[in-house]
């Protein structure tokens, strides 16, 4: 097969995988009247383990595409380009990386030498303490962005502190929070992390009103929902930021938005984030890489280039459900950032349907097919 034919096959398969929901292309029982005893593709998929496995492989490949980091094509493949690549490695690791470490260390020194006294000595003056802590958190996030040589362009009006509003954004990495936080001190809803990130969550970020949860704890959902409602009603609380996808996606797709952020009876302000992968891929695959290694990857790259759009605030329309509202906002973010929508729940990244459930479904369809054949 020639290279041209290979590219055509690849592009064709990519287009097919962008529409992975096989059920959408299978006729339902109520939509058409079929002769008794006629087998449908849906039935064959359910009674044939081989066909089911093949269809499942197509669906699984489409799902995993949302959480894969595409490695850049190598360009240092000849004698002329290889020396330039070696020079770039020396500059990035021996010059830029030490300077960035010094910049970040200097930022932490200023932050901690100011934050600790303010947090300890101004406990009786909550308004003043929160205002100073808000500025300090924005400052340390700016130092983080500087340590990647971050080039971030913001479009639209800067978020403000108002009651009964929530900001929602697509999610690529934990640095999404840092990129947005350097402009406005958001109170974010985030998974509780271990290690030094967890320490920052329970100390510094707690001061700006951030809310943490644990996916493995079912009771956390009720607690978080109650905290969300209380937070959006406050007049002096920091703006609330939610990543409704619930997981990091590779900035090529958007998965389904959870409806919790759209059931708060408040204004929803969409934020679209798009990273330029010319220098580094900002996607964080938490299953393969710790956040520390992710930061080191960013700090040893040339730069992190990003575009952020603050879109027009939205309210739920009459007769519109929370799920429809969430999909409408996802449409806005996907269109603005140039991302493809896929009909997947991001939590499937952490848990899949049980095999027993699939086996029971196959058995029930097999029994129905046998009954048709016996009647015939």
UniProtKB/TrEMBL annotation:
Q: Name one GO cellular component term.
A: endoplasmic reticulum
> Where's it found, cell-wise?
Membrane
- Please give the Gene Ontology molecular function terms for this protein: glycerol-3-phosphate O-acyltransferase activity
Which InterPro entries does the entry link to? LPCAT1-like (IPR045252), Plipid/glycerol_acylTrfase (IPR002123)
The answer, when asked if 4Fe-4S is one of the entry's keywords, is: no
Instruction: Establish whether keyword Transmembrane helix is in the entry.
Output: yes
Organism from which the protein derives: Brassica carinata
Q: Which GO terms describe its biological process?
A: phospholipid biosynthetic process; triglyceride biosynthetic process
Family statement: Belongs to the 1-acyl-sn-glycerol-3-phosphate acyltransferase family.
Q: State the UniProt keywords alphabetically.
A: Acyltransferase, Lipid biosynthesis, Lipid metabolism, Membrane, Phospholipid biosynthesis, Phospholipid metabolism, Transferase, Transmembrane, Transmembrane helix
Q: Classify the main location.
A: membrane
What is the name of this protein? Phospholipid/glycerol acyltransferase domain-containing protein
Lineage summary: Eukaryota, Viridiplantae, Streptophyta, Embryophyta, Tracheophyta
Q: A Pfam family this protein belongs to?
A: Acyltransferase
Domain (Phospholipid/glycerol acyltransferase): residue spans on this chain: 165-276
Pathway listed for it is:
Lipid metabolism
TM ranges are: 77-95, 102-122, 134-154
**Sorted alphabetically, which SUPFAM superfamilies does this protein's record hold?**
Glycerol-3-phosphate (1)-acyltransferase
């Amino acid at each position: 097969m020639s290279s041209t034919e290979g590219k055509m096959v690849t592009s064709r398969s990519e287009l097919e995988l962008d529409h992975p929901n096989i059920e959408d292309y299978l006729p339902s029982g109520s939509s058409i009247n079929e002769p008794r005893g006629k087998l449908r593709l849906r039935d064959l998929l359910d009674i044939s383990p081989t066909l089911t496995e093949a269809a499942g492989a197509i669906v699984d490949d489409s799902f995993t595409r949302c959480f894969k980091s595409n490695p850049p094509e190598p360009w240092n493949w000849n004698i002329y380009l290889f020396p330039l690549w070696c020079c770039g490695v020396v500059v990035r690791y021996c010059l830029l990386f030490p300077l960035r470490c010094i910049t970040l260390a200097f930022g932490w020194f200023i932050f901690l030498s100011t934050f600790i006294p303010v947090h300890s000595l101004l406990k009786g003056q909550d308004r003043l303490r929160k205002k100073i802590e808000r500025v300090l958190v924005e400052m340390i996030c700016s130092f983080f962005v500087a340590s990647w040589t971050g080039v971030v362009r913001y479009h639209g009006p800067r978020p403000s502190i108002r009651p009964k509003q929530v900001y929602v954004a697509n999610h690529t990495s934990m640095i999404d929070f840092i990129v947005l936080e350097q402009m406005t001190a958001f109170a974010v809803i985030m998974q509780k992390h271990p290690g030094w990130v967890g320490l920052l969550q329970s100390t510094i970020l707690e001061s700006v009103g951030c809310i943490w949860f644990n996916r493995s704890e079912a009771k956390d959902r009720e607690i978080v929902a109650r905290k969300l409602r209380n937070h959006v009603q406050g007049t002096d609380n920091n703006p609330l930021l939610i990543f409704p996808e619930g997981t990091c996606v590779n900035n090529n797709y958007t998965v389904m938005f959870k409806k919790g952020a759209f059931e708060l009876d408040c204004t929803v302000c969409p934020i679209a984030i798009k990273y330029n992968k010319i220098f580094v891929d900002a996607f964080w695959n938490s299953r393969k890489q710790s956040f520390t290694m992710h930061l080191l990857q960013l700090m040893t790259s040339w730069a992190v280039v990003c575009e952020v759009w603050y879109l027009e605030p939205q309210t739920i329309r009459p007769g519109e459900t929370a799920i429809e509202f969430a999909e409408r906002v996802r449409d806005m973010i996907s269109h603005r950032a140039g991302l493809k929508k896929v009909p997947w729940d991001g939590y499937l990244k952490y848990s899949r349907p049980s095999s027993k459930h699939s086996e029971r479904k196959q058995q029930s369809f097999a029994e129905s097919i046998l009954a048709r054949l016996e009647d015939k």
